Amino acid sequence: MKSTFRDIIEMLKDDMVSHGFLTQYLSTCGEGVPMSSTGVANVLSELLSSEMVEIGEAKLSTSDYVEFIAWRGTVAERVDRALKVVASAADMDKEFAYWLALRENIDRFEAMHPDRP
Description:
Blueprint: H1 2-14, E1 17-18, H2 19-28, H3 37-49, E2 53-62, E3 65-70, H4 75-88, E4 99-102, E5 108-109
Parallel strand pairs: 3-5
Antiparallel strand pairs: 1-4, 2-3, 2-4
Helix pairs in contact: 3-4
């Protein structure tokens, strides 16, 4: 899984990575990563535990800028949240259920209480 980790970090140096792109990569190139929610969860856990990568949402903030809003919580909480967001998304939206970005490229963290306006 070390080469998988390095490959994903290299991809993140160029741009954010969506859930769909991550799973596509894992299904075609991911060294020994089973294509299941457990396999994806393990990769996400490794990436987030490195403290180099954040997970969250990408939102269009102006006509030419996409803002990355990182989720708060422990690694386990954020991985669980990602799996739940994917599971509850409509088929067409699953690909963009969450995004990954290098920590240095995030714009901000979500509010302390994301379930409140």
